[in-house]
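Appendix B. One record, verbatim.
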Amino acid sequence: PGDVAIQVVSVAPDGTQKAALSHNPAQPMPLASSMKVVVLAAYARAVAAGTLRADTPVTLAEWEAFYLPGLDGDAH
């Protein structure tokens, strides 16, 4: 419990915010891979917009179409 921090916030259409889940929200923690967060945010926005379906797997070929070598520390 002391090694984890998370803050999930629900944002209403009018911009008001409400914490939906909170554990050690003020505790700074290093992010292991910020690039994954950017990809996850883009995926979540596409699902919310109806461009992608959350229950449909993303194929490796689709993922690799947008892969830029050297940006992931060669983890790909």
